[in-house]
Specification:
The chain is α+β, with helices and mostly antiparallel strands. The chain contains 5 helices and 17 strands. It has one domain: Clavaminate synthase-like (Double-stranded beta-helix, 4-Layer Sandwich). It is globular, with a radius of gyration of 18 Å. Belongs to the TfdA dioxygenase family.
């Protein structure tokens, strides 16, 4: 794919692109925005270096792709005065980090976010990578028999999974049914849309059958052939499409600090 206003360097043949030639701390031109849309559709996740964003610039960048998605489960971690911005932080006092299981962000919501834009200003001296997996490729690698079997099935996604099965006091967490196989609204391609982070069971079939199918799919999407892996630097950004990619935050840096902010973009009802 050719670009005139940005440069995109593929991270792997299947997904991931390092974008240069654009300053996200400043407003973007129409052609830059259009080409970033194309790059996201083509690469599924795009990365930027040396972009010291403040909250206003972070939100402005997200708004080029749609409105802001504010998930109920992020309320305890919202940045003061900026409910659109979620604080992402781990240090020596952390007992867990969000997102270690492979997942698509907030798939439990009725309209899950189109994408997530994560900006890290502080990183550990070593470790803390994020891995991504291509759900188009994962779907394409299924046998035709398995594709036929999964077509038309729906599965339940539950936010309480991320809280260890317990709903925190005073919070109402979403629980929503979505297709096991969804079609991306921009590319028209089919992809797997169940994930270990939120999906609890496939509806309309016996629970043992559901457990077996989900266990197979959760393992299937982790194949290295589908993946790319991003090594962070201070003031880097990762922008991924939750509709066709899953990711896993690798917590191999304890007790070091890894800190930044995330903004999510409004999505649609999976179909």
């Amino acid at each position: 794919m050719e670009y005139s206003a940005i440069t995109v360097t593929a991270l792997t043949p299947g997904m991931g692109g390092i974008v240069s030639g654009v300053d996200l701390t400043q407003p973007l031109s129409d052609i830059q925005v259009a080409e970033l849309h194309r790059a996201l559709d083509d690469r599924l996740v795009i990365f930027f270096r040396d972009q010291p964003l403040d909250h206003a610039a972070h939100i402005r960048f997200a708004n080029y792709f749609g409105g802001i998605h504010i998930a109920p489960s992020t309320k305890p971690w919202q940045a003061p005065g900026h409910p659109e911005v979620t604080v992402i932080h781990a240090d020596a006092d952390s007992t867990f980090v969000a997102g270690e299981d492979w997942h698509s962000d907030m798939s439990c919501d009725p309209e899950p976010p189109l994408g997530s834009i994560l900006y890290l200003h502080t990183i550990p001296p070593c470790g803390g990578d994020t891995a991504f997996s291509n759900m188009y490729a994962a779907y394409d690698a299924l046998s035709d028999r398995m594709k036929d079997h999964l077509e038309g099935l729906t599965a339940m996604h539950d936010a309480v999974v991320g809280f260890g099965g317990i709903t925190p006091e005073g919070m109402t967490l979403p629980r929503t049914s979505h297709p096991v196989i969804r079609t991306h609204p921009s590319t028209g391609r089919k992809c797997i849309y169940v994930n270990k982070g939120f999906t609890t069971y496939i509806e309309g079939i016996p629970r043992p059958e559901s457990d077996a199918l989900l266990a197979y799919l959760f393992d299937h999407v982790k194949q290295p052939l589908f993946q790319c892996r991003f090594t962070w630097e201070a003031h880097s950004i990762a922008f991924w499409d939750n509709r066709c990619a899953q990711h896993s935050a690798i917590w191999d840096y304890f007790p070091q600090v890894r800190s930044g902010f995330r903004v999510q973009i409004l999505g649609d009802v999976p179909r």
